[in-house]
């Protein structure tokens, strides 16, 4: 990976204006699409397949008057007055006509109404001081037109004018959810991020770059999301979560690359070379970190909930764009900025020592060894370049890591105790969907909600519906009277104000008012009790009743999300173990990282419960009310925090491993790796915290819970787990931290984020010295086959030469596989077509073909630059003259076509004489010598014949 990113960084630095134009054009096109065809993110939260949701869907066809959403209007008389007087009756009856005339309204229920929607006296409070008007509207809460909403507000104001001494307020399900928007406080988070960037990078140009690039990335992702709404429904939370994550990771990912580039420039690495190497090293960590966030977000689909899946995919797309823009636009903008990316102090220092001028020459690239160039934090400095003078931050972090590793057992124990206590509140975690209590105190919907609870009881804010088919009943009204009496006897039921069939007398609804509100455990128990009576009522009355309504749907959503937390947690933990094992080639590092992640999650959950359930710091954080936590907060927080935790694990521990693999002992690698990465990890964490925390004070109720959890989770994970617990645990493990069983190392693919592969490639850029232009070159090459270690003689293959391998030699077939990118090397050095193996095996495999004479034309159809011609089968089935002529013609045409770019590389596994017949005269046959002292023996075509 580091090699591919190195090439990408070099290309982006050269094609800087093209890269910038492509991103600006993409932003413009998606922006136009969002404005012209986007439908907005306002899809309802539904869970198809649940009893409550299926019942609502069925009601939309059989009883549309009650299947949609609803609004409530409450009228409260002054103290000492009653609402059942003629004055109130006349005012309400006059308003009914206004409500019924609104578009989409299917019925109005009041204590003074008539017909199917007439209500019992239960719509008048027990003390007679308040009454309720229920307005039923078709559609869901997000599809109701603005005209209807404004009409209900206007009619309510008119009713208030008719009753000037009364309190009249509107609310209900339709108005209980607010659409989140961007406020000025989010800009405060960006300003804090800017300050942190200036302090970290020491240059306004460097500090502005991550912000600019992140904002472009966020603009592309948000515009793309709103464009996609023309084809896919998204909830209102989706773009806000994508904005929050895209902004945070976008700044961080660019920061890592810019910081590494600055470090290398100060060490004297040439400009474009530094851009490429920063993209290769820090860029590899960015890819891995982004990949973990993306996988975790897409993993939200394991819950099987459509709205959560779309939310996860949308947020993952925003993170993916942040990675892509960091890897392409960052190198381009770095190239535009030039040396201005450094502070004036460092530019003057480089100019004074002559480094700023000599760094522009190509000759210096080869003067720097790979290890020197890629590990600029070495205390001895790079070759010929003084080591950077330790800064105040370096001294601080050096002192910190020495303190936490001096007595690691005490450090580990202290962290576990503190985080264990912080996680205790999470044991009382309760989940629910938000209702009107999450709105601001003066919001009309919340005022209505609280007045309804005060005068009618909390259960009136959480009505349930029993519905079912009664088509087989000969006495629908009598049946419903019997069912109504049955339901009224169930514990937890406050009243049953409505039990009526539809106009066709084939579907019934029974409205049930619980004794307590939607978030009460007794209401959840009541829903289950009603469902438990289904079989009894079916046997007795011949009708199957389902429990539905907004409250029942919310309870079903919360239950499914709670059930999904365990499988999702297992998925995330298992994923972290595998991914980190791939990255660090270690067993203990993944285990330590995963346990640290669980500690961070526990502390984040504890903080959320303490604030939003217990009310700690409620006023300071502008929390409007306390109660159960947003149902999908835990699973989203687990997914997002997993990715961010892996970010800091990778950026911190990868630098330790980089020091270790480049020759440092385990303890020294901890100290140097920590000091080399702690400054940028601290800045990245502070930026994340600032961005997330900015969404808390004025954010939407759904977003602020997630934002607070992420802000606390990032703080704990970055500063307590990664920068305190991790060094202590690594000090305890020592060299064992980097050990892995050989069988596991062979099974797991390698994810080179430390640039080891790139270091080897740079080191072998002009290798072999005796033949720099060799098409194939090897040294001390050893292959594994059947448990045996096969060593090969050195190979040097020039242009227009063909390597012929004797199939009787056990090394021939494994060597041919390796030379085409299909085998594995046990030891030694090998380059094929300029590609160092095994680092570039994937690239070689893409440009190599393996064919026999019968599949030759198909094999060379894609114009490969490397061809393995397998002639082993011809020993048993010799080729006829026509087949030989056809194969010779095909190879000649292929070789001629490649001559314009690069001569072909041909490896033959088979008979030397037959190879001479098949290959053009312009190619010289070279066979692998039996004596290792004989590099190869050449034979002209005539001699072979």
From TrEMBL:
Gene Ontology cellular-component terms listed: plasma membrane
Assigned keywords, A-Z: Cell membrane, Membrane, Transmembrane, Transmembrane helix
Molecular function terms from GO: transmembrane transporter activity
PROSITE patterns in alphabetical order: SSD
Membrane topology: Multi-pass membrane protein
Ranges where the SSD domain occurs: 189-336
InterPro entries the record matches: Acrflvin-R (IPR001036), MMPL_dom (IPR004869), Mycobact_MmpL (IPR050545), SSD (IPR000731)
Protein name as annotated: MMPL family transporter
Gene3D superfamilies attached to this UniProt entry: Multidrug efflux transporter AcrB transmembrane domain
Signal peptide: none
Keyword Transport in record: no
């Amino acid at each position: 990976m580091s090699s591919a990113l190195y090439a990408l960084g070099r290309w982006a630095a050269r094609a800087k204006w093209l890269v910038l134009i492509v991103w600006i054009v993409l932003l413009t096109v998606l922006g136009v699409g969002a404005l012209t065809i986007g439908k907005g993110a306002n899809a309802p939260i539904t869970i198809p397949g649940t009893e409550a949701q299926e019942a609502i869907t069925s009601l939309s066809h059989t009883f549309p008057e009650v299947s949609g959403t609803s609004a409530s209007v409450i009228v409260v008389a002054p103290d000492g007055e009653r609402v059942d007087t003629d004055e109130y009756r006349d005012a309400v009856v006059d308003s009914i006509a206004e409500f019924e005339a609104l578009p989409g309204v299917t019925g109005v229920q009041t204590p003074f109404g008539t017909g199917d929607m007439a209500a019992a006296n239960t719509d008048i409070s027990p003390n007679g001081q308040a009454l309720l008007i229920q307005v039923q509207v078709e559609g869901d809460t997000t599809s109701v037109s603005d005209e209807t909403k404004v009409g209900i507000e206007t009619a309510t104001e008119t009713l208030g004018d008719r009753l000037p001494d009364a309190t009249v307020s509107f609310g209900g399900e339709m108005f209980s959810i607010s659409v989140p928007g961007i406020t000025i406080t989010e800009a405060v988070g960006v300003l804090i991020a800017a300050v942190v960037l200036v302090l970290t990078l020491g240059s306004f140009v460097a500090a502005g770059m991550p912000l600019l690039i992140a904002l472009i990335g966020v603009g592309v992702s948000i515009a793309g999301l709103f464009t996609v709404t023309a084809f896919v429904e998204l909830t209102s939370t989706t773009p806000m979560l994508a904005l929050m994550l895209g902004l945070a990771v976008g700044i961080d990912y660019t920061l890592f690359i810019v910081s590494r580039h600055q470090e290398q420039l100060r060490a004297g690495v040439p400009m474009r070379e530094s851009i490429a190497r920063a993209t290769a090293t820090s860029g590899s960590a960015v890819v891995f970190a982004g990949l973990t966030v993306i996988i975790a977000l897409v993993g939200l689909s394991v819950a099987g909930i459509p709205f959560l899946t779309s939310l996860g995919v949308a947020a993952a797309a925003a993170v993916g764009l942040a990675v892509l823009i960091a890897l392409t636009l960052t190198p381009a903008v770095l190239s535009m900025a030039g040396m201005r990316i450094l502070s004036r102090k460092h530019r003057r220092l480089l100019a004074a020592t002559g480094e700023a001028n000599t760094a522009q020459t190509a000759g210096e690239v080869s003067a720097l060894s790979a290890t020197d160039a890629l590990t600029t934090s070495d205390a001895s400095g790079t070759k010929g370049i003084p080591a950077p003078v330790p800064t105040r931050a370096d001294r601080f972090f050096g002192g910190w890591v020495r303190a936490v590793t001096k007595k690691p057992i005490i450090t580990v124990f202290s962290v576990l105790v503190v985080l264990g206590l912080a996680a205790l509140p999470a044991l009382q975690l309760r989940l629910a969907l938000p209702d009107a209590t999450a709105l601001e105190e003066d919001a009309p919907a919340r005022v209505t909600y609280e007045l309804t609870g005060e005068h009618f009881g909390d259960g009136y804010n959480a009505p349930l519906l029993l519905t079912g088919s009664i088509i087989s009943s000969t006495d629908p009204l009598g049946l419903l009277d019997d069912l109504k009496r049955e339901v009224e006897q169930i514990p937890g039921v406050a009243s049953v104000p409505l039990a009526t069939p539809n106009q066709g007398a084939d579907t019934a609804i029974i409205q049930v008012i619980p004794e307590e509100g939607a978030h009460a455990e007794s209401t959840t128990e009541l829903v289950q009790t009603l469902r438990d009576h289904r079989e009894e009522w079916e046997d007795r009355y011949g009708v199957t009743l389902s429990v539905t309504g907004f409250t029942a749907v919310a309870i079903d959503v919360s239950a499914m999300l709670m059930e999904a937390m365990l499988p999702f947690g297992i998925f995330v933990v298992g994923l972290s173990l595998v991914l980190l094992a791939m990255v660090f080639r270690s067993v203990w590092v993944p285990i330590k990282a995963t346990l640290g992640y669980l500690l961070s999650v526990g502390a984040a959950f504890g903080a959320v419960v303490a604030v939003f359930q217990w009310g700690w710091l409620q006023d300071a954080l502008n929390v409007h009310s306390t109660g159960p936590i947003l149902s999908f907060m835990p699973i989203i927080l687990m997914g997002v925090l997993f990715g961010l935790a892996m970010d800091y694990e990778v950026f911190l521990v990868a630098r330790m491993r980089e020091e270790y693999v480049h020759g440092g002992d385990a303890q020294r690698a901890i100290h140097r790796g920590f000091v080399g990465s702690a400054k940028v990890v601290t800045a990245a964490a502070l930026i994340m915290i600032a961005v997330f925390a900015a969404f808390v004070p004025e954010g939407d109720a759904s977003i602020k819970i997630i934002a607070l959890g992420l802000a606390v989770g990032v703080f704990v994970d970055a500063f307590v787990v990664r920068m305190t617990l991790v060094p202590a645990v690594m000090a305890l493990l020592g060299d064992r931290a980097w050990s892995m069983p050989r069988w596991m190392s062979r099974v797991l693919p390698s994810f080179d984020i430390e640039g080891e592969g790139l270091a080897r490639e740079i080191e072998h850029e002009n290798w072999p010295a005796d033949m720099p232009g060799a098409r194939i070159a090897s040294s001390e090459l050893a292959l594994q086959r059947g448990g045996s270690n096969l060593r090969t003689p050195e190979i040097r293959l020039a242009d227009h030469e063909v390597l012929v391998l004797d199939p009787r030699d056990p090394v021939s077939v494994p060597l041919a596989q390796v030379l085409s990118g299909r085998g594995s090397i046990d030891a030694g050095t090998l380059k094929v077509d300029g590609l160092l193996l095994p680092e570039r095996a994937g690239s070689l495999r893409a440009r190599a073909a393996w064919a026999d004479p019968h599949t030759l034309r198909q094999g060379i159809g894609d114009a490969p630059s490397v061809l393995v011609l397998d002639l082993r089968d011809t020993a048993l089935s010799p080729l006829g003259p026509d087949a030989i002529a056809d194969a010779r013609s095909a190879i000649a045409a292929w070789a001629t076509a490649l001559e314009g770019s690069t001569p072909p590389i041909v490896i033959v596994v088979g008979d030397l004489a037959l190879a001479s017949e098949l290959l053009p005269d312009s190619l010289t046959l070279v066979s692998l010598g039996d004596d290792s002292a004989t590099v190869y023996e050449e034979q002209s075509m005539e001699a072979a014949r």
